[in-house]
């Protein structure tokens, strides 16, 4: 595989257990930990009956099927609307953090170790497209050829620190056009289904390498949200980004673009912000549950739903987040609207289906 990178500068969920797991994988730097990560990205996932009850971090619909991914490289498939699950072969045993499909056949998954996986048969079979080590080595080679010492210094730092940096979210612009973002400001795209990769980092003013947790697109706008209140907005399909100031300096773990001018951010301690004018002004939404919001979605009715570490599904009504389930679940990590309108909630203890709380 030949990987092309364009780089001119380096511009960077759930109770204690979940937070600790995420933080652990983000900051590993010892030689022992690096060896473990390298082993995990080279070793296929083990078959386990515990897969459906493990930490699951993302799910996507692939036609009539649902694919969920999580710790240990687990990839699960359900053909009965999440009533039962079957583990699928995975080429890695490192944690997978995200999955998305562009159609019923073509999909991609991302995870720790800078891994990107691809499938062309609805998720039944997956191939490793790239990992962090390959990406960073190519970044260094490209920088040296261009005699870009700043980019080379960044690449050397990432290479010395190990290939453990996780990708945390992905955006599919087509069946072959993928954008991935992650820890330490990592941001890359591929326009040929993962064969070659280009860096987005020089487009994003992120000098401290803050973690990038969420990427969304609506029309020509691309929004990236992350650590310490970092928000960047593009109005030209990701060609350039403007840093957006918000009144909150805590991390945003999820974001949405409900309409042409609206931005919704949510994250640490339940803080949820909305802007009706592309980030010029912000309003704090009322959230009676001060637990970190880990995920969000816009349902088929155009309504906003959120999930938090307190195990609650929340629906936005009249500027207030209202709990949908009265009995808390295990800490939630991700949510997906199912074909029947209910919500698939992923947690540190696997997947479960919830009534969406819709008034229809």
UniProtKB/TrEMBL annotation:
UniProt key word Hydrolase: no
GO cellular component: photosystem II
SUPFAM superfamilies noted in UniProt: Oligoxyloglucan reducing end-specific cellobiohydrolase
GO BP term, pick one: photosynthesis
Pfam families according to UniProt: PSII_BNR
Residue span(s) of domain Photosynthesis system II assembly factor Ycf48/Hcf136-like: 81-127, 166-245
Domain of life: Bacteria
Keywords in alphabetical order: Photosynthesis, Photosystem II, Signal
InterPro entries listed in its UniProt record: PSII_CF48-like_dom, WD40/YVTN_repeat-like_dom_sf
Signal sequence coordinates: 1-35
Name of the protein in its database record: Photosynthesis system II assembly factor Ycf48/Hcf136-like domain-containing protein
Source species of the chain: Neptunomonas phycophila
């Amino acid at each position: 595989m030949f990987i092309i990178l364009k780089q001119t500068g380096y511009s960077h969920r759930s109770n204690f257990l979940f937070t600790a797991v995420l933080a652990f994988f983000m900051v590993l730097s010892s030689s022992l930990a690096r060896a473990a990560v390298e082993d995990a990205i080279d070793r296929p996932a083990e078959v386990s009956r515990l897969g459906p009850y493990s930490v699951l971090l993302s799910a996507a619909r692939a036609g009539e099927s649902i694919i969920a991914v999580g710790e240990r490289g687990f990839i699960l498939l359900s053909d009965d609307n999440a009533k039962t699950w079957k583990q699928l072969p995975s080429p890695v045993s490192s944690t997978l953090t995200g999955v998305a499909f562009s159609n019923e056949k073509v999909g991609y998954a991302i995870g720790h170790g800078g891994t990107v996986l691809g499938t062309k048969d609805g998720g039944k079979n997956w191939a490793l497209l790239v990992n962090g080590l390959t990406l960073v080595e190519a970044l260094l080679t490209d920088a040296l050829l261009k005699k870009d010492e700043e980019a080379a210094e960044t690449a050397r730092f990432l290479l010395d620190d190990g290939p453990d940096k996780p990708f945390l979210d992905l955006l599919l612009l087509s069946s072959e056009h993928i954008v991935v973002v992650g820890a330490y400001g990592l941001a890359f795209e591929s326009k040929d289904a993962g064969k070659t990769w280009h860096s987005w980092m020089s487009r994003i003013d992120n000098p401290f390498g803050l973690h990038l947790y969420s990427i969304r697109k609506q029309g020509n706008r691309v929004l990236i949200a992350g650590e310490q209140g970092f928000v960047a907005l593009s109005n030209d399909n990701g060609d350039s980004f403007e840093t957006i100031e918000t009144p909150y300096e805590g991390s945003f773990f999820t974001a949405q673009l409900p309409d042409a001018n609206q931005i919704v951010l949510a994250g640490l301690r339940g803080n949820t912000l909305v802007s009706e004018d592309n980030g010029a002004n912000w309003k704090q939404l009322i959230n009676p549950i001060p637990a970190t919001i880990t995920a969000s979605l816009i349902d088929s009715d155009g309504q906003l739903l959120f999930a938090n570490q307190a195990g609650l599904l929340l629906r936005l009504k009249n500027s207030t987040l209202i709990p949908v389930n009265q009995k808390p679940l295990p800490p939630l990590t991700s949510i997906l609207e199912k074909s029947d309108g209910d919500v698939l909630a992923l947690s540190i203890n696997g997947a479960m289906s919830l009534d969406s709380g819709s008034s229809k």
